[in-house]
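In response to reviewer comment 3 from the previous cycle, which asked for concrete evidence that the modeling workflow produces usable outputs, we include below a single protein chain processed end to end. The sequence was submitted unchanged, and the resulting C-alpha cells are shown without manual editing.
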Amino acid sequence: MAATPIAGVPREGDEIPPFARRTGFANWNRYAAVNDEFVPMHMDDEAGRAAGMPGAFGMGNLQLAYLHNLLRQWVGPDGAIVSVSCRFRAPNTKDMRVTARGRVVKVSEEDGRVLVDLDVWTEDEGGRRLAPGTARVMLADA
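The workflow returned the following C-alpha cells.
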C-alpha cells in the first residue's frame, strides 16, 4: 500500500506512488534542448550502435530526473527533496517504459520536521533495475 504525506507519516516498508514514462527520441530531444546535451549517441541510431548499443539511448541523467519527478510528486509543493543519488547500471532504450519507484527505509524527526529516507530506482518493464539509489525528503507540516 502506498503512503502519501497527505495521509500522514509513512512507515518503513511503504512504497510511494510510481512515476512512469515511455522513453524515446521525443523525450531525449526535449531533455537535450534544456540541458544542451545533443550528444550523437542519444540522437542517432548509428552513433548509438557505434557506442555498443542497439541504437540511440537515453541520457543517464534523464533517469535521475525521473527519480526527482517521483519524489516531487510524492512530497508535493510544500515538501523538500533533501538529497537524491543513483548509480547508472543500464540505459533506457527507445520505446522502453521506465518506471521510477521508491520504498521508505527510515522515518525520523529533526527540528520538528519529518525526514524520510528511501531506496529509489528506475526499472524497465521486466522489473530490471536501471538506476538504483537513495533519497532523503522532508515532508511538509501535517
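Residues 62 and 124 are 14 Å apart (CA to CA). We consider this sufficient to address the reviewer's concern, and the full set will be provided in the supplementary archive.
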